[in-house]
Each structure stands twice: as structure tokens, then as C-alpha cells.
Amino acid sequence: MRISFLGTGTSHGVPVIGCSCKVCKSKNPKNKRNRTSIHIKTENTNLLVDTPPEMRLELINNNIQHVDAVVITHAHADHIMGFDDIRALNWQLGHEMPVYSDKKTLESLKRIFPYIFSESNQGGGIPQVKMIEIKKELKINGENIIPLPIYHGENLILGYRIRNFAYMTDCSRIPNQTKKLLTGVDYIAVDSLRYSKHPTHFSVDEAVDFINELNVKKGYLTHISHQLDHEELNNYLPNHIEPAYDGMFIEI
């Protein structure tokens, strides 16, 4: 199984518009962060998690030409505003793209992109999608995908587990029932916005504490703001945890 980190930045991306901080002005390519998304490739399927604004460029930059299904964590702009670019994926797939999420998120997508779902839409291409509500565990091309309810502030959203890998972006609190669903996970990618506390995201230390609690082999930090320099963060972290960066991939 190959996990590709397509984007690892927070909602503003890095560099931030109009910012001249040292991270935004950094020449280190690992400090250039598109909005957060991953691609999961197994021998059975190609799965895209979220459709951020830079989705088109992220897929091109990582030479990803085929996606079998899309799962959405939640309907904030930095996770969905590339949704229209599913159109190009339809050409490769040859049929409607299955899009999975919870009921609230699917309803938000229909409200935010009404032209996609309107029977009276005239002119212009639209993505062909099949919206599928996640209720419990789902199976995509033989792969079991376990939805992981997590709190993003007071908003309950979804992370996802596939085999022994879990992806939990935009989280500030993990329900005990979700922790039970993480039993046997060896690798995990977790939200880590900045060093200081935030009401809707893990701080670096909160993410480290959570990863250590799970006792996994390897943890990765993602959804990283311009307040965190890649090399400084990497030096701060314990050896079994590292910051992800755009274009990074792991083989499990």
C-alpha cells in the first residue's frame, strides 16, 4: 500500500497570501504546502481523500492519473473546493465517481455545488458523481475503509482507516469509541497546526501525545501552518514522528 501526501498545509496554504514570515519566504520546498489531501493506492484500488483547491495540480505533480473513489472528511473549503475537477477523473474512470462521506457533508456538497446536481443545468461540463452516505464500515473494490469520527472543534467530522494506516486531519479531540477503532494501527497521519493551542486543531504537542498514546510504529504530522518550519519541527519531534510534506509518500 502506498500513501502519497498530496498536500500538507492548513486552510491558508503555505506561503500565505501577503505574508513575509521566514517560512513563507523559505526556499526549502518542504515549506511549500498545498491544502491537505492524500492518495491511497493498493493492489485493489486508488482512493482520494478530499478534493482541496489545488487538487488538479496535486494529482498532476504526483503523476496520479486514476482514482476509483473519493472520500471526504468534511465540507470546509480547503477540503472540497477542487470538487469540480473530478470531471477529468471521470474520463479515466469511464463512469460516475463514487463519493463517500457522512450525511451532513454530502448535503453540504450539494448546497455548495448546486449546478452539479441541478436537472436544469445548461452548458458547461460537470463532474459525474454518485453520492454515497457512510453509515458504518464501507468496502471499496475489496478494501475495507473504516470511518473514524473525530471532533474538529465542536464539529464532528471523519477520519479514515485502511488496513493498518489511519488518516485524521482537522482534529482537536478523539472520542474514546474512535480510539478503539484504531487498535492495530501501525502508521497514522494526524493534524498538527502549530505549537500553541488552537480551539479546532491539535497543537504539535497534542498530536505527539496522541500518537504516543496509540504506540504506533510511525506517526506523521499534517495540516501544518506557516508557523512551523519543516526542519525545525523535524528536529523537535521524537524519532518515530515526522512532519509530512507535499510529494512525500510511504510504502506500507
Textual characterization of the structure:
It is built from 8 helices and 14 strands. The chain is 23% helix and 27% strand. A 7-stranded mixed beta sheet has the order 6-5-4-3-2-1-14. It has a single domain, classed as Ribonuclease Z/Hydroxyacylglutathione hydrolase-like (Metallo-beta-lactamase, Chain A, 4-Layer Sandwich), CATH 3.60.15.10. β7 (138-140) and β8 (143-152) form a beta hairpin. With 252 residues, the chain is of the alpha/beta class. The longest helix is centred in the C-terminal third of the chain and has 11 residues, at 204-214. The chain is globular. It has helices at 55-61, 77-80, 86-93, 103-112, 114-117, 176-181, 204-214, 230-236; strands spanning 2-7, 37-41, 46-49, 69-71, 97-101, 129-133, 138-140, 143-152, 155-162, 165-168, 187-191, 218-222, 241-243, 249-251.
Helicity, as a percent range = 10-25%
Sheet with most strands: strand arrangement: 6-5-4-3-2-1-14
Largest sheet: 7 strands, mixed
Named at the architecture level, the CATH assignment is: 4-Layer Sandwich
Residue runs with pLDDT of under 50 for 5 or more positions: none
Instruction: Provide the succession of SSEs.
Output: EEEHEHHEHHEEEEEHEHEHEE
Look at the structure and give the mean pLDDT. 96
